[in-house]
Amino acid sequence: MAQTTGISLRQAGSEKNVQFGKISKSRRWSGTLLRERASVLGWCVLLMASSTAIGILAIDLSLPNRVEEHVDKSLRHEVEKFQEWVKTDSPQSDRLVAMAGEFLERENPQKDSFLFALFNGQLYKSKSLALPESLRAKSPLLGYWSQLLRPEQGKISIPGGTLLYRAEPIEIGGQVKGVLVAANIIALEGDRFSGVTMPIARLAAIAPYIAAALAWIVVCFVLVRTRSLLKAARKIAESDLNQRIPVRGTGEVAELGRTFNKILDRAEAALGEGQNFINYVGHELRTPITIVRGHLELLGTDPAEQEETVALVLDELDRMSRLVNDLVLLAKAERPDFLDLETVEVASLTEELYAKARTLGSRSWRLEGKGSGKIALDRGRLTQAIMNLVENATHYTTDNDAIALGSATTEEAVYFWVSDRGEGIPETEQEKIFEGGVRGASAKLHCEGSGLGLSIVKAIAVAHGGRVELKSQPGRGSVFTLVIPRVAIEFEPEIELEVERFAPTAVEPQIVLACQHSSFSIPLANTSESSSWRSSAIPLAKTPVKYRTTPGAF
Question: Less CB within 10 Å around the terminal CB: N or C of the chain?
């Protein structure tokens, strides 16, 4: 009873730890979302505050110039109107003073502007309720203006601000009879502008806080979908990869969900293939080990029985060795030095493959075609791939059934194919047979291979930059085609290849050049003092290729 209670307590404690872990993870996710919201909100507020500060600074810097431009335009307008008035009437001297008075009576200058006329050095009349002390009668400034003989504009500092003025002499018959002056105290005009701009500045100052509140609401609304996405992703991470994120609508978040689901599909497929492969390899290794162990445990003293058991054990060990070798080959297929490329004649290689294939069984062998030209490939690896296809064809056919080999050449690629008139492969299995351990529905009736042959064929084709194509119909046979591109590797212009070794004992002496991907054999007859070959010397190269010799290489 005590033991049961102890187990129950441990289980309860374990459940509490799990729940605590989930709560802790949930809190971490919530904290992450809060930090993201705060980060987005902070950047929004910073951006708006910066924009507001720049705007206020720009207003503050441009306001004085704008005020001066506005005042100067107003003063110029007043003077031009008086000039037009005088030109229209063409008054005499006795009429000029009256006309100036009429003009001043008609005009209504702005609140902070002053318009007055000077005759004989005295202030005749002013259109303003009250003149500043500096503009009243007998002031030095009025005396200065009354002596002007030509138009003048300028700025003068007076108590209360800066006075911007325009003075226009009044001429009749070429003689100056008086002066019309339009003036404005810029400080007062600036105050009027400031009365408009300051409320804007105050509103701009509080705008970031208003924007922050609105941005928080918007960010929370936008991140609701992100939060649901994170919840679904967390649930998938904590349970299994079979679940998918629900996606609704369009937009970046929906596209993110769809992309994440595609990643999950690929991950699940890869894990499934890996698990199937592990299960297959485990089964294939476990079976011969069980057979070997069982026979050794039952091994008797009879010499004939011992000889039979040893032969069976060696056969099972050979099968295990073939499986391990195939696994090692597949593992090496991803390495850059997997291929040892050389330039070969397509026709002679096809004949060589056909001769080797005929030794694998009593079939009706046919050579359907031979391609022309040269191609750079790994002769040994390609031979292994074709022989795997041929051996596969013999397993699916019987004596005297037709098996054909052939090759063809185009500008883009070289095609090597193996066709048979065997049982064929159902369409549902055609995409699966290149996976490790998949032999097809009827393979078990014919062969005891490792089941990795077609995987090796695909790996060799892909390593050459090519592919494997399959055309098959149940009851009519199959055609496997290796497509090897003629331009599988592109070199950078003027790439240098270092001489790896010199083969003087070959039938045609060759220089072997090493590059990042593999080695290339170049006939010595193609060498020259220029130390370079065109792409015709190395079929894989699109551009001129240089080589660099080492001292004593020859």
Answer: N
Number of domains in the chain: 4
Q: Dump pLDDT digits (tens) for 211-254.
A: 777 777 777 777 666 777 777 777 777 766 677 777 777 777 77
> Any idea of the CA torsion for 38, 40, 42, 43, to the nearest 10 degrees?
160
pLDDT at 514 over 80: no
Residue 350's pLDDT is: 94
Alpha carbons 75 and 8: distance in angstroms, whole number: 98
pLDDT band at residue 191 using 50, 70 and 90 as cut-offs: low
List, as one string, the DSSP characters of 514-544: E-SS-EEEEEGGG--TT-EE-TTTSTT-SS-
- For residue 519, how many C-alpha atoms fall within 13 Å in the half-sphere facing its CB? 11
Helices (H), 90-171: 93-106, 140-146
DSSP state for residue 547 in the 8-state scheme? E
Report if residue 9 sits inside a domain.
Answer: no
Q: Give, to the nearest 10 degrees, the angle between helix 379-395 and helix 453-463.
A: 150
Together in a domain, 501 and 534: yes
Degrees, nearest 5: CA angle 323-349-376: 85
Check residue 360 and report its DSSP letter: G
Question: With contact defined as beta carbons under 8 Å apart, do 488 and 540 qualify?
Answer: yes
316, 291 Cβ separation under 8 angstroms: yes
